[in-house]
Amino acid sequence: MAPSAIYASEQPPLLLADGAALEVISDAVDKVNKLKGLSSPITAYDSESKFDVAKDKASFRQYETACERVRDFYSEQHARQTVEHNLRMRAHFFDPKRKREEMTIWQAMERLNTLIDDSDPDTDLSQIQHLLQSAEAIRRDGKPRWMQVTGLVHDLGKLMLFFKGCSTGQWDVVGDTFPVGCKWDEKCVFAKAFGQNPDREHPIYGTNNGIYTPGKGIDQFMMSWGHDEFLYLVLKDQSVLPREALAMIRYHSFYPWHHEGAYKEFMADGDEVLLRAVQAFNPYDLYSKTDEEPDVEKMKPYYMELIDEFFPQKVLKW
Predict the structure, then answer these.
(1) Whole-prediction pTM value?
(2) Distance between first and last Cα of the chain
(3) Could you give the CA distance from residue 283 to residue 277 in angstroms, rounded to a whole number?
(4) Where are the transmembrane segments (predicted)?
(5) Which residues is 223 bridged to in the sheet?
(6) Residue 217, class by beta-carbon neighbours within 10 Å (0-12 exposed, 13-18 middle, 19+ buried)?
(7) Element (DSSP H or E) covering residue 257
(8) If we measure between CA atoms, which residue out of 163, 3, 159 comes closest to residue 92?
(9) How many whole angstroms separate alpha carbon 40 and alpha carbon 30?
(10) Quick one: which of 38, 106, 137, 144 has the most CB atoms within 10 Å?
(11) Distance CA 265, CA 167 (A)
(12) Each residue's pLDDT tens digit, 73-84
């Protein structure tokens, strides 16, 4: 059966073992990005990150080794992230008949903890502790409260694994993201793997601009389906997060854009602010994991206050 014939609605929600396997792939993908030697510039509203200055970024395994682990993953992802698939997943997300689970942010963090608990190969910390590490690194560097809470929630989109029809496998949950509906930029990771994607032969989707207009803005993009886009769709109308925070959530895996400089011809006035925001967030996404165990109960009151500030309706529909 061709990849495009596998319908999301036919797939059951993934199980605990699938979640553990997903986090192993997610960790390997992060290592590839770390080994590229990523850095972030100073932004108009944030200073350069300080928490990671002393980290030995060269201590990660060799780039080729990490690539070997994720090559098969990207081969599948690049072949199956089609316009058809993305339209189908969004139609399912917005389907009024879809029963959307209701949870607070902290409940969502606890739910994520049960999905991928003890699965991270680098540390023995829980997922709540990992989320707190990102938020605490942002907090220690004196960044705004809205950015601290963004660090706290930015990976909660992986909850899509729990929800029937919201994902079909690891390939549409994690990994670098990119627009569908136009020719893929050569700066995308493992770009040659797009040769197996049926959209490359499409008379519109296979062209440089595809369904998009240069200069119209990056928000016109239909980004490849995954945990970034899922969480963005959940939070954009259920929070008071600023535009920069929503960009950090939606585009933090869009490495071809925020690190490689691709797709800039589609940017509009004001998009530079979003680009700088995502670049400022990047080191906290990649380098904040350590073996130092955060005291969850001690930190919880502070972050519950942040959650209440930026998610005033308390209970969200996922």
Answers:
(1) 0.82
(2) 31
(3) 11
(4) none
(5) 179
(6) middle
(7) helix 255-258
(8) 163
(9) 16
(10) 137
(11) 31
(12) 899 999 999 999
